[in-house]
Amino acid sequence: MHKVRYFIFLLLLGILTNTDLYAQADFTIVSKDNQVGIFYDSNEPKVVEIAAKLVVNDIKNISGKEIAINDGVHKHAIIAGTINNSNLINRLVVSNKIFIDDIRGKWETYKIVLVDNPIKGIERAIVIVGSDRRATAYGLLEISRMMGVSPWEWWADVTPHIQSTISISFEPKTYGTPSVKYRGIFINDEDWGLQRWAALNYETETGDIGPKTYAKIFELMLRLRANTIWPAMHKSTKAFYHYPKSKEVADDYAIVIGSSHAEPMLSNINAEWDHQTMGEYRYDTNSKSIKTFFEKRVKETAKYDGIYTVGMRGEHDSPMIVGENDTESQVLLLENVITDQREILKKYSKKGENKPRVFVPYKEVLHYYQSGLNLPNDITLMWTDDNYGYIRQLSSPNEQKREGGAGVYYHTSYWGRPHDYLWLNSTNPVLMWEEMSKAYECQSRDIWILNCGDIKPHEYNIELFLDMAWDISSFKNSQSVLDHRKQWLAKAFGKTNSDKISSVLQKYDELSFKRRPEFMAWSEVEPVTKSKETELTQFHYGDEVMTRIEDYQQLINAVDSIQKDMLPNRFEAFFQLVYYPVIATANMNHKWLYTFKNKFVAKQGRSSSLFYKEKVLSAYNRISQETSRYNSLKNGKWNHIMNMAPRNLPVFEKPSVSTFFSENDPSLGLALEGYEMEMNDKIINSYANVLPIFNAYTKNSYYIDLFLKGQGSIKWEAKPKASWIKVSNTSGELNENKPEVRLIVTIDWDKVPRGDNKKEAPLGHDYQLIPPSFKVNSAIDFVSNDNINTVGVSVFNPQLKELNDYSEFIEDKGFVSINAENYSRKQNGKEASWQTYKGLGYSGHVTLALPRSAISQTETQDILSKSPVLEYDFYTFNFGEADINVQAIPTHALHQGNGVRCAVAVDDNKPVIVDFQTQGRSETWKRNVLKNAACQSVKQIVNKAGKHTLRIWMVDPGVMIDKILIDLGGWKKSYEFPKETKRK
User: Fold this and answer.
1) How far apart are CA 706 and CA 718, in angstroms?
2) 832 has which bridge partners?
3) Are 839 and 509 in contact, with CB atoms under 8 Å apart?
4) Helix (H, G, I), strand (E, B) or coil at 392
5) Are 147 and 165 in contact, with CB atoms under 8 Å apart?
6) pLDDT tens, 640-670?
7) What is the DSSP letter of 588?
8) How many helices (H) and strands (E) does the chain have?
9) CA-wise closest residue to 320 among 266, 348, 281, 363
10) Is it true that domain 512-652 has CATH number 2.20.28.10?
């Protein structure tokens, strides 16, 4: 009882004296009459001194005031210290000024509190207490965050706003423990940006990425609360350990050094393996030399923090060489390699065998692991994505119990098959969140590394990745990611601008998700291929090429407008973080889209081929101009950092174009939506003289291109033959400056006559064959030079009573198109339900089955009784066999042996299982990752014209459905499914 009373007394004493319980308060750092001092103990590690000096410099950049460190008498102060290193902190603890038991012994955990009269002469202080050296440094730099200093203050020139008074308002709190223990980046494929910039501009004394460059990288990492780096490792860069100072700088900044899947034991095979003196790099014939190499590195790094990658691959991202080239032999050899490496670590490492070790089942190594490789239980399993953002496998429930835990190696930059994306950042942030939160859910919490290429222009995704690794609980859903970016933009460019920029970047993400800018030539690498024909259609569904051109033009217009209102001190930051990525992506798209358009119109004999040729050249030149502008920012600070043609691949070239030239007199040409060739008025009753049918239930619109043929100019006039036909423009002139015009034809549905009142309308798969009783026909005459070209207009406008109050999906031209999130109904399963994520997929939303821990259902009865189901009501005018095309996000099975499956049925048909899982680096996988879509099709019978229901059940949790197309025979070839055919 006495012990209980004493405990209560101590608790009350803590409540009365412990300033951890301060409410939100204001604290002045700099004012006209006063400025703080910063104090830390001389025993503190170097990283605390570095962080303190960064804060001092941040204060100077804002206010112009030089803040003293460990000097002078100050009314207010910032006191920082690490538990077990700081006498200052010990004194505050003993005097009950602060309480530290809640962070003592924890990993990278810090608290910031306000303390009155902490030490003699100081009235009030912000006290930062860290559980370890990094925590204290993070805590100091948290003050910079509170002052509004961006982590990208140097790396993206987010220059602080000048102010004479600096006050912060904060609620004393504890930060950490971080969600992921080791969090960091991999500098990779640095040949065209970071290495050239360092060698030719920033670190000319070494002519390389050396200690000076790494110091700036480590500063950024501290500001982002990262702690681990995989250094650059291409042949263009000398090995990290080539410069002895590099590891010392890393230790000063408390950065943990690791190495990639191809660099065992902190070695850099590309730069350090000498065939002349060391022999062939293969373990089955030259293990002694390789072990000597490993031993040297372990001795060199013994006293520093490091993470050792175990296992072995070949030189530069290739499989290891094995005499017996079968899986069993490869697995046995790899097990021997790991056994020998463990012995080396045990013998030479300062922390012995307990130093962190990771095994990275990347590419072919995953196959070895899946084939039964015996991996010691205390080694961290570091899962990888497929290089395009989709994690290939995660820990099963049994693997989640491993002592060594698990982690993830993830890409937002990549060199390799089927195509590189090294130039710009085009990884959708919501996808990255979805994959990494999935990994965290499967207990991958020990190490996260992001392959971010040259750092620039991956700034936002780097911060998002590291913020998730720091506190995954702040990212509960997809909206959290969108909100995070908007807040990030607001801090950099203000609230008003952040709303506008956020809207631009969401559209940028959507378009890049459909096709990354580096993939726009439809070429491939390894071996390199020239540009190919686009899969985008130019004559169906509104012209996918022109739609994409217009979408990117809107983004160009938007960022040009925002740039005009940008504050002068944030102009360079806006250019780097927003303007260049958007403008470069838009013009890469325009360059190729106008190339495709140029070749298409040349085949039709259009004089506009020359117009599109100029558009191609203009887009190419704009990329060049803006890249030069990037490299000249800040008086050349970033010279050589941006390269518009990494690896000089065909996609970056100036495309070849076609020019159609005719000396004939001017005449008017017409091309109608739905037809590849121009309209031929010489053929009577040609289908190519009639627009696709207008459907009263989907209220279509179609285009007609009017174009100049020959030389000179020509006037034209459009004359609809019925009052209910609407044309976007009815007259004009075509000439060399305006060689073509696109008209949009719509229907005034209040004026168009009704068709016969029939219950059923068996239209057939060819909409030109609609029975006359269901059509209303008319035409548009196009008059030029006394010539008349007549375009037929047919309208399907029946009076079907059963559709009077119907608002769901309708067949149009032989298909029904559906966005997955727009279900008519959904029903939860016993363990799972369908949920919608925003900001991902072709429609901007995807629907997925959660939780991921739910049990897969593969038996028909279990699917029907236990699985969640989506239901989509649709109406058809046709009947018979239909292809149900389902488009999903091309994720991989959660665990080995699982699939990525759903089940599909129309009406009461038996569910048919659809699996989106791909194997290895197959042609299907290549197509999927280039398109960010996995499409599968099943046959179903639509037994009558009328109302039906499509049902989609979960088979495996985590499957993400994007779009659905029910094809009754009318779908024409297109890159995307046509727009939704929902009743309008």
Assistant:
1) 10
2) none
3) yes
4) coil
5) no
6) 999 999 999 999 999 999 887 777 889 999 9
7) H
8) 23, 36
9) 281
10) no
String of DSSP letters for 338-360: HHHHHHHHHHH-TTGGGS-EEE-
CA distance 448 to 382: 8
Contact 488, 447 (CB under 8 A): no
pLDDT band of 73, cuts 50, 70, 90: confident
For residue 495, give Cα distances in angstroms to 150, 153, 499, 502.
15, 19, 7, 10
The model's confidence at residue 23, banded by pLDDT at 50, 70 and 90, is: low
Q: Which of 316-320, 339-343, 542-546, 922-926 has the lowest mean pLDDT?
A: 316-320
- How many of the other CB atoms lie within 10 Å of CB of 839? 22
Give me 228's structure tokens: 């681990």
Candidate CATH numbers 2.40.160.20, 3.40.50.2300, 3.30.160.40, 3.20.20.520; the one for domain 259-376 = 3.20.20.520
Token pair for 827? 């029903």
Q: Which CATH number is associated with domain 667-803? A: 2.60.40.10
> Under the phi-then-psi rule, with left for phi > 0, alpha for psi from -120 to 50, and beta for the rest, what region is 880?
left
| CA separation for the pair 258, 265 (Å, rounded) | 8
Name the pTM for this structure. Answer: 0.95
Beta bridge partners of 668: 708
Q: Would you state the pLDDT for residue 681?
A: 65
Task: Report the alpha-carbon angle 753-758-759, nearest 5.
Answer: 135
Q: Class assignment of domain 809-967?
A: mainly beta
Contact indicator for 510, 502 with CB cutoff of 8 Å: no
pLDDT band at 758 (very low <50, low <70, confident <90, very high): very low
Average pLDDT over residues 126-130: 97
pLDDT digits (tens, 9 = 90+) for 349-364: 776 556 789 999 998 9
Using omega within 30 degrees of 0 as the cis cutoff, is the peptide bond preceding 397 cis?
no
Strands (E), 283-414: 308-310, 357-359, 380-384, 406-411
Q: State pLDDT tens for residues 879-904.
A: 999 999 999 999 999 998 889 999 99
Burial of 105 (0-12, 13-18, 19+ CB in 10 A): exposed
Contact 982, 808 (CB under 8 A): yes
Q: Are strands 182-186 and 76-82 parallel, antiparallel or unpaired?
A: unpaired
The C-alpha atoms of residue 784 and residue 788 are separated, in whole angstroms, by 7
Instruction: Give the chain's length.
Output: 984
- Domain 512-652 matches domain 667-803 at the CATH topology level: no
- Whole-angstrom distance, CA of residue 411 vs CA of residue 11: 49
Contact call for residues 588 and 621 (beta carbons, < 8 A)? no
For the chain, the structural domain boundaries read 13-175, 259-376, 512-652, 667-803, 809-967
How far does CA 659 lie from the centroid of its chain? 38
With 0-12 CB in 10 A as exposed, 13-18 as middle and 19+ as buried, what is 383? buried
For domain 13-175, the question of CATH label 3.30.379.10 is answered with yes
